[in-house]
Design goal:
four-stranded mixed sheet, LRRNT, alpha/beta, membrane, binds 2-acetamido-2-deoxy-beta-D-glucopyranose, 15-stranded mixed sheet, leucine-rich repeat, glycoprotein, Leucine-rich repeat, LRR (right-handed beta-alpha superhelix), transmembrane helix
């Protein structure tokens, strides 16, 4: 009907008239492509030496990437009040004048990466009150001065990596009250900019790279109470985290990768009880020790890829009842026992590829759980078992598993239990060698059934032997060698009887029959039987006990004389060495030497 036609005609007239109206010019600079629908202007790769003039006022996005723009003048973008996104990546910017972005009051993102900026003057970012994302990565900025970013109260994401910062001033980040995520590169910094970071009261995620530190100091991130994610990467010299270095943080995610840590930082990790994700990949860590990560009770994901891991001890993940993901691929592990876990039932993803795995009963649990565990396309592969070399865990059929992945119980190879009888002072070695699959570990128990350590006068040697040096009568008794592996254990008892020295020996320092090894006959041994260390210790102990007795004596005399009211000025003390005294009744020797001491009382 007529009404509709009139409406239609009016609409057509309006549409035709629009481009002619002076208030909304639809201009587009020659090197750019302006999209009227999205209001985006794409000048990328337009061979521009400067920001073109005559840009449409209502643009929301201006893409100036891959040009050769060198400078941005003051109020360069003044009229683009609707602009939301400005991208100046990959230009040759060396100078950005103060207030260059003034007027961009709606701007949300500003990208300046891969330019040649060396300085950012205070005031450059004035007027960007809505800005949420700022990227100045891969420039050559040397210093961050006080209050550079003070106008960016809405900024949430700030990327500044790939610069040459030599100095980050204490107030550099002042005013960034909304900042949630910061990435910064410390290649040329000598310390964590702790004080500057302290301004970022709302920070949630921090990524620090390339700092040249060997030790992460205490309280490095102390006031960042809201920080949830910390990524430390490529600190190639970092070997130690001080005990309190992570103090004050309440992280849920921690990554320390491509550093030089040789130990899991157990102590610094202890307070992080809310940690869910831990990544220590690409550190030369050799072992995850037992029962030291139990404080991380909410941990769900642990990654240590590309390390130097040779062992994951029993109980390593004890207490971690929610561990779902473990990735220890690209290490030197020969096995991973189910005893390392709190419970293998929670495990959903297991990265064990690229390890020289020995396929035996210790890995049976992995094969049995293969249907419940995701190997992310890299199932474990047997490496060191001759029979199964190259087999992949998915090749095993359910019913043949327990026949293929087997272990052999240890067997101690010694033919008989020795009974050794020696004179006091001899050194005795008991051998114990065992076979089994996997190779059993050998340990020794003393007559009190306590485990013998690898140090001390009586010690377990690394080759499985037990060594008793300078045997004493109280060393007598039954020692037990225990060989154990995943399949069980075997034991062997040996007995030692040490005979006390005959009372006839005269010279305390060169007693007859005292020799360094049982094989050497006493007569042949012309060497001084004590080594220098023993002698030194004995002498020192003697001295200490002598002096303490003398001191006690003097104190006593001092008080006594005080009490009497008359003062003796000198005192002479004669002493007889204790060993000589205690042996006096049995020894008739010439060891009768006594000492004499004169002291002055004050
Ligand atoms: C911008 O223009 C360049 C050059 O014509 C083109 O390669 C690129 O895809 C465009 N980008 C967008 C987001 O349209
Ligand atoms: C600008 O254009 C380049 C090239 O097409 C593109 O890679 C980049 O993402 C664009 N920037 C924005 C903010 O869209
Ligand atoms: C901004 O707009 C004013 C007029 O509104 C004009 O005179 C001026 O040249 C424009 N500036 C730029 C940089 O386009
Ligand atoms: C920053 O460190 C890199 C390598 O670590 C070096 O090449 C560069 O010269 C250093 N820059 C400054 C300004 O010291
Ligand atoms: C890493 O630590 C080892 C010793 O623990 C040292 O020999 C090596 O030089 C360190 N590497 C770096 C890059 O500092
Ligand atoms: C760091 O703190 C720990 C624990 O309080 C302390 O033992 C250590 O000496 C401190 N290290 C330094 C360098 O202050
Ligand atoms: C630590 O963070 C967790 C969640 O990430 C939160 O529930 C807990 O209250 C925080 N603790 C403190 C002391 O801030
Ligand atoms: C373990 O991490 C490596 C390296 O990131 C990855 O390639 C592999 O897929 C991961 N494995 C699993 C099971 O997630
Ligand atoms: C075990 O090592 C010690 C020294 O470490 C050596 O004296 C002894 O002969 C070794 N025993 C065997 C059985 O190889
Ligand atoms: C040796 O095995 C028995 C059971 O076979 C076990 O009770 C014992 O604790 C094991 N001893 C050691 C030292 O592993």
């Amino acid at each position: 009907d007529l009404h509709a036609v009139l409406h239609w005609a009016a609409f057509c007239l309006l549409a035709a008239g629009t481009p002619l109206m002076p208030e909304t010019p639809r201009l587009c600079p020659p090197s750019c492509r302006c999209d009227a629908a999205t209001l985006e202007v794409n000048c990328s790769g337009g061979r521009l030496f400067a920001v073109p003039s005559g840009l449409p006022f209502e643009s929301t996005l201006l893409n100036l990437t891959r040009n050769t723009i060198k400078t941005l003048a003051t109020r360069q973008f003044h009229n683009l009040t609707q602009l939301l996104h400005l991208d100046l990546s990959d230009n040759l910017l060396t100078l950005v004048e103060v207030e260059a972005f003034l007027g961009l009051r709606s701007l949300l993102t500003l990208r300046l990466p891969r330019n040649h900026l060396k300085v950012i003057s205070v005031g450059v970012f004035a007027g960007l009150k809505s800005l949420q994302l700022l990227d100045i990565s891969s420039n050559k900025i040397l210093v961050l001065l006080d209050f550079t970013f003070r106008d960016l109260a809405s900024l949430e994401f700030f990327t500044a990596d790939g610069n040459d910062f030599v100095f980050v001033s204490r107030q550099a980040f002042a005013g960034l009250t909304s900042l949630k995520k910061l990435a910064i590169d410390g290649r040329n910094l000598t310390a964590v900019p702790t004080e500057a970071l302290a301004q970022l009261t709302d920070l949630r995620s921090l990524h620090l790279q390339h700092l040249g530190l060997a030790v992460l100091p205490n309280y490095s991130f102390h006031p960042l109470v809201h920080l949830k994610e910390l990524i430390i990467s490529h600190f190639s010299r970092l070997e130690t985290l001080s005990g309190n270095s992570l103090f004050g943080l309440n992280l849920t995610s921690l990554t320390i990768q491509h550093c030089n840590l040789s130990e899991v930082p157990y102590i610094p990790l202890q307070p992080l009880v809310y940690l869910v994700y831990l990544d220590l990949s690409f550190n030369p860590i050799t072992c995850i020790r037992g029962n030291l990560l139990g404080d991380l009770l909410r941990l769900q994901e642990f990654r240590l890829v590309g390390g130097s891991l040779m062992c994951i001890e029993s109980g390593a993940f004890k207490g971690l009842a929610y561990l779902r993901v473990l990735n220890v691929s690209q290490n030197f592990l020969t096995t991973l026992e189910s005893g390392s876990f709190h419970s293998v039932d929670t495990l959903k993803t297991l990265g064990l590829g690229d390890n020289p795995l020995a396929c035996d009963c210790r890995l049976l649990w992995v094969a049995q759980r293969q249907l419940h565990v995701d190997f992310d396309g890299r199932p474990p592969i047997c490496a060191t078992s001759v029979r199964l070399e190259g087999w992949n865990f998915l090749d095993f059929a359910e019913d043949e598993l327990s026949n293929l992945l087997t272990c052999r119980r240890p067997r101690i190879l010694n033919l008989k239990s020795p009974q050794v009888r020696v004179d006091q002072g001899h050194t005795v070695e008991f051998y114990c060698s065992a076979e089994g699959d996997p190779q059993p570990s050998v340990s020794w128990l003393n007559p009190q059934l306590r485990r013998i350590s690898t140090t001390g006068r009586v010690r377990a040697l690394s080759n499985g032997s037990l060594e008793v040096r300078y045997a004493q009568p109280l060393d007598s008794g039954t020692y037990i060698c225990v060989a154990s592996n995943a399949a069980g254990n075997d034991s062997l008892a040996v007995s030692l009887l040490v005979q006390a020295l005959p009372p006839s020996s005269k010279n305390l320092f060169r007693p007859k029959g005292w020799s360094a090894s049982p094989s050497a006959s006493p007569g042949e041994n012309q060497k001084l039987p004590f080594d220098l260390k023993t002698l030194l210790i004995a002498t020192t102990i003697g001295f200490f006990s002598f002096f303490s007795s003398v001191t006690v004596c003097f104190i006593f005399m001092f008080f006594w004389s005080k009490g009497k009211g008359q003062i003796k000025h000198t005192a002479t003390i004669a002493y007889v060495p204790r060993s000589a005294v205690s042996n006096n009744n049995t020894r008739t020797g010439n060891y009768k030497e006594t000492g004499r001491f004169t002291m002055k009382l004050i």
